[in-house]
């Protein structure tokens, strides 16, 4: 670990897609805006704060959002516009540091331990970034300042919208103690349930169990939980995150049987391959070794099947053939229907590393 604490920002645009729509169309301001296509298969991409007061949230089925808020204004997403605004925001970040790790179009980590601007503190840097975003994009952003990434991310949500929250190194343990364990990264509903069986509801409860007991119960993950409970996280901001997977997926108008998926798999393989060719054209030119088939059943169960052939796929036809064949490894009843299918390429390696392996074993 570093002896000197890092200064990390997590900057998160407020209700980003919905806020862009309200900015660009004055008639939408002050109204409950839901960014989503209408229809039984659609999900909410974003909800304005006016819509959130009715319980509407991102990733919620659009039909449920409509039931919760009948007066909502539904606006189809315009990702070209959102990406343009995101680029503006990234340019503002880059005036301060080149250690920027985008998480999505609307949020990013920044390491501002050392900055180009020479501002006196991480707090001053966060204030300057938020002011520039407001002035140049006419949108608002919230920010968290902390000595590591996961605490900064929690902090950015503390005073939303249009807020700033600072957790200094000596405040980390006290800040985390009363939080539900579900706020820790990697602690989902299943782990929350397992911890609840041990009488653990808060981070303070988790600390009380002790590192040895957690490691005995959960292995390496238990050790990691103990570290997180004490605010220990040394993961650096990674400006260039290597590609892990390139994929394309589609949700159908009506659920289909496995035997009916081939044309859709082939179409999605073409989309994934087009994205892969762009990746291959970059200076890194990394090579994918694994083909992935993703399926979601009508009752929302997600399955993935993958294959790593002896040689990396070299054509879209090969990817499509492998993805179609992976259906044979789905062991659900033939009557099962599927609402979504996806095709992906993963297992990326550097081209020179792959060549070296061929030289070694060829």
From TrEMBL:
Its EC number is 2.7.7.7. The active site is at 107. It is found in: Cytoplasm. Its cofactor is Mg(2+). It catalyses: DNA(n) + a 2'-deoxyribonucleoside 5'-triphosphate = DNA(n+1) + diphosphate. Pfam families: IMS, IMS_C, IMS_HHH_1. Binds 2 magnesium ions per subunit. It comes from the Bacteria. Mg(2+) binds at residues 12, 106. Residues 8-188 form the UmuC domain. The keyword Coiled coil does not apply. Its main location: cytoplasm. Keywords: Cytoplasm, DNA damage, DNA repair, DNA replication, DNA-binding, DNA-directed DNA polymerase, Magnesium, Metal-binding, Mutator protein, Nucleotidyltransferase, Transferase. The record marks 17 as: Substrate discrimination. Monomer. Belongs to the DNA polymerase type-Y family. Poorly processive, error-prone DNA polymerase involved in untargeted mutagenesis. Copies undamaged DNA at stalled replication forks, which arise in vivo from mismatched or misaligned primer ends. These misaligned primers can be extended by PolIV. Exhibits no 3'-5' exonuclease (proofreading) activity. May be involved in translesional synthesis, in conjunction with the beta clamp from PolIII. PANTHER family: DNA POLYMERASE KAPPA, DNA REPAIR POLYMERASE UMUC / TRANSFERASE FAMILY MEMBER. This is DNA polymerase IV. It comes from Lysobacter helvus.
């Amino acid at each position: 670990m570093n002896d000197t604490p890092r200064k990390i920002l997590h900057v998160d645009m407020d209700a980003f897609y919905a806020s862009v729509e309200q900015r660009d169309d004055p008639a939408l301001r002050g109204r409950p805006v839901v960014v989503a296509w209408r229809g039984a298969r659609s999900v909410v991409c974003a909800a304005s704060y006016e819509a959130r007061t009715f319980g509407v949230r991102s990733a919620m089925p659009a039909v449920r959002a409509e039931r919760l808020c009948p007066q909502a204004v539904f606006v189809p997403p315009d990702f070209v516009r959102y990406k343009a605004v995101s680029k503006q925001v990234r340019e503002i970040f880059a005036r301060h540091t080149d250690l920027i790790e985008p998480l999505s179009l609307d949020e990013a980590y920044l390491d501002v331990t050392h900055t180009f601007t020479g501002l006196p503190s991480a707090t001053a840097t966060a204030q300057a970034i938020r002011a520039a975003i407001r002035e140049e994009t006419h949108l608002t952003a919230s920010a968290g300042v902390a000595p590591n990434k996961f605490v900064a991310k929690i902090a950015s949500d503390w005073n939303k919208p249009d807020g700033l929250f600072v957790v200094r190194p000596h405040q980390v343990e006290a800040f985390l103690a009363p939080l539900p364990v579900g706020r820790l990264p990697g602690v989902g509903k299943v782990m929350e349930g397992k911890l609840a069986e041990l009488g653990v509801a808060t981070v303070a409860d988790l600390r009380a169990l002790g590192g040895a007991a957690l490691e005995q119960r959960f292995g390496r993950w238990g050790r990691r939980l103990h570290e997180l409970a004490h605010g220990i996280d040394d993961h650096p901001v990674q400006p260039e995150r290597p590609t892990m997977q390139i994929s394309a997926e589609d949700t159908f108008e009506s659920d289909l049987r496995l035997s009916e998926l081939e044309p859709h798999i082939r179409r999605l393989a073409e989309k994934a391959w087009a994205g892969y060719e762009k990746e291959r054209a970059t200076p890194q030119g990394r090579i994918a070794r694994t083909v992935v088939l993703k399926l979601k059943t009508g009752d929302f169960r997600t399955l993935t099947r993958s294959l790593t052939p002896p040689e990396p796929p070299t054509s879209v036809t090969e990817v499509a053939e492998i993805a179609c064949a992976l259906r044979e490894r789905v062991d659900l009843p033939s009557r099962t229907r599927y609402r979504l299918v996806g095709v992906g390429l993963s297992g990326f390696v550097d081209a020179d590393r792959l060549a070296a392996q061929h030289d070694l074993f060829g």
